[in-house]
Amino acid sequence: SFVSNVSHELRTPITNVILYLALLQNPLKASKRDVYMGVLQNEAERLSTLIEDLLTLSRLDVEVESERKELHVMDALITEVFDSLQARAEAKSILLQHELNPEVPAVMVNREQMVQVITNLMGNALSYTHPEGHVLLSSECVNARKEPHLTIRVYNNGPVIPPEDRVHLFERFYRGKTGRDSGEPGTGLGLAICKDIVERHSGWIEVESDAELGTSFTIFLPLYEKSVNPAAG
Fold first, then answer.
1. How far is CA 55 from the centre of its chain?
2. Of the candidates 75, 173, 187, 167, which has an alpha carbon nearest to the alpha carbon of residue 124?
3. What is the mean pLDDT of the chain?
4. CATH number at residue 38
5. Predicted confidence band at 229 (pLDDT cuts at 50, 70, 90)?
6. Is residue 106 part of a domain?
7. In 38-123, at which residue ranges do the beta strands (DSSP E only) sit?
């Protein structure tokens, strides 16, 4: 159940924090102290991420779907997310690129939520891409399900996501083998939140992962003709 999963996810980092705080009370070599402090920092960040994700889920459960939706030029949002993650990519020696598409029309979205979705997908790509790897963020207009859609694609050439994991990726608290083996902290809620937000915008997310072609998460958002001027970003 949801409560059981939340309790488990909270209990593990809290237990580790208590344990390592106790260990720090003993005389230690500087090298061990540094290791323990690193563990405490990671567990604190894990708790912070989990709490933020839970708050986001709570907000989504009560928000009206049409609330705060406006026309936005998506390339402006893409550029905003790209710029915010550039330093992180450089720190891992990852080539981070984005392909702007001025022909893409504005889309009716909740700006804050869509920035969160793109940031989450890009953050995952950077987390699981090896140093010297490649992450690409792009957009284009396509016909999907017999209707015009905007797609936002996040590509990386990191590890392949096994087929048995792909079918569960968007379930709450699910972490696939790639995530578990990476050592990267995670709550298993980020992709579930992305799916919820995109579906509230009448869209969906598709995942492709292949050893030769890399991994792509593609957001599909419907295009609607509106008679009002779009926001700049």
1. 16
2. 187
3. 83
4. 1.10.287.130
5. very low
6. yes
7. 69-72, 95-99, 107-110
